[in-house]
Specification:
With 341 residues, the protein is of the alpha/beta class. The protein is built from 13 helices and twelve strands. The relative contact order is 0.14. This is Inosine-uridine nucleoside N-ribohydrolase.
């Protein structure tokens, strides 16, 4: 009787193996890309950007045209060096290697410093690539530039070729709260983190350009909380990449504990909405239909990086509520599928 049951379980396992083995293949083949996307993030900084990178490159509905490693603010606690864009590219390549995606995507380095003024671009390889992709005439799929850090590279690109404003949609994680939508958090800083990376670049995009802009300000990106228990049970077991991502957060926890900055049980994955608003748009009448935004007149960004009224500002989307269920269940599922192959 025992032998018969053992044989039964072995048969079930053997039958299941082919289904696990083709999961990624089936997933990728049944989904056709319907938009072009350029990923731009400070991948040497807050590790939430690495979570966004992983989820994006595992999303078959987007045609990722390039990945840009951009710089941090000078003296940033995550990387106080003067080569943060260089280190960002190194992190991107490390992640792609762990996912066995070496060579699949073109990776570009942004400038290691911000704009000196609002008229003179840094002619980085990343900015030139954005211009080249935006000005293509041989494709008609929409192009999104998604940015989870400072706006240096998209501002550089715009200053190099203002005509790109008519060709792209920019999705930016950044900017403080709009007080008519949400109050600031306890103990807040007036100057929001991503704005502070390059205030002059933010001024170029808001004050000078007419680029179509979807903004995810601080009150919205702070919604994207995951618990440490989720990381331990849903991320860390998923192969080398799951272990790598979880350890990145654990390193931050250890560092903050050392300085008696107790962060509790959650972490803000504030860059993952870049995936939600692109790869996870609705099937018909494509749009991020499960997240909510307000159309607002773009403010003017002053020299302190704060909002001022701009009566001639264009309308922009300002997201104020994000579909975290879809966002994180998709992330966990894609990690699991990738780990089965």
């Amino acid at each position: 009787m025992m032998q018969r049951q053992t044989n039964k379980y072995i048969l079930i396992i053997l039958l299941a193996i082919p289904f696990f083995g083709i999961a990624q293949k089936d997933f990728s083949q049944k989904v056709t890309p319907r938009m072009r996307v350029i990923l731009d993030n400070d991948y040497a900084g807050d590790p939430d950007g690495l979570f966004q990178l992983v989820q994006h490159v595992l999303s078959p509905s987007v045609d990722i045209r390039g990945i840009i490693g951009s710089h941090l603010k000078p003296g940033d606690g995550f990387d106080p060096s003067n080569e943060t864009a260089t280190h960002a590219v190194q992190n991107v390549n490390e992640v792609l290697s762990l996912l066995k995606l070496d060579g699949k995507f073109d990776v570009y380095q942004g400038s290691n410093q911000g704009l000196k003024d609002t008229e003179t671009p840094n002619e980085s390889a990343a900015a030139k690539f954005i211009v080249k992709e935006a000005m293509r005439t041989d494709v008609d799929s929409p192009l999104y530039v998604v940015c989870g850090g400072g706006l240096s590279e998209i501002a550089n690109a715009y200053l190099l070729e203002p005509k790109i404003a008519e060709k792209i949609t920019l999705i930016w994680i950044g900017g403080p709260e709009y007080t008519d939508i949400a109050p600031p958090p306890p103990g807040y800083t007036s100057l929001e983190y991503n704005t502070a990376i390059d205030i002059k670049a933010t001024q170029v995009i808001f004050n000078q350009s007419n680029i179509s802009l979807w903004q995810v300000p601080r009150n919205a990106y702070r919604e994207t909380l995951v618990s440490y228990a989720e990381l331990l049970t849903k991320v860390k077991p998923q192969g080398k990449i799951g272990k790598y991502l979880t350890e990145k957060i654990e390193n931050v926890m250890e560092l903050t504990n050392k300085y008696k900055i107790y962060t509790g049980e959650t972490y803000i994955m504030g860059d993952n909405p870049l995936v939600l608003l692109t790869a996870l748009q609705s099937s018909f009448e494509a749009d991020p239909s499960s997240s909510f935004y307000t159309l607002k007149q773009a403010p003017k960004i002053n020299d302190a990086g704060l909002y001022e009224v701009n009566h001639s500002g264009r309308n922009i989307r300002v997201y104020h509520h994000l579909d975290n269920r879809l966002l994180f269940e998709d992330f966990y599922a894609k990690l699991q599928i990738a780990n089965q192959n």
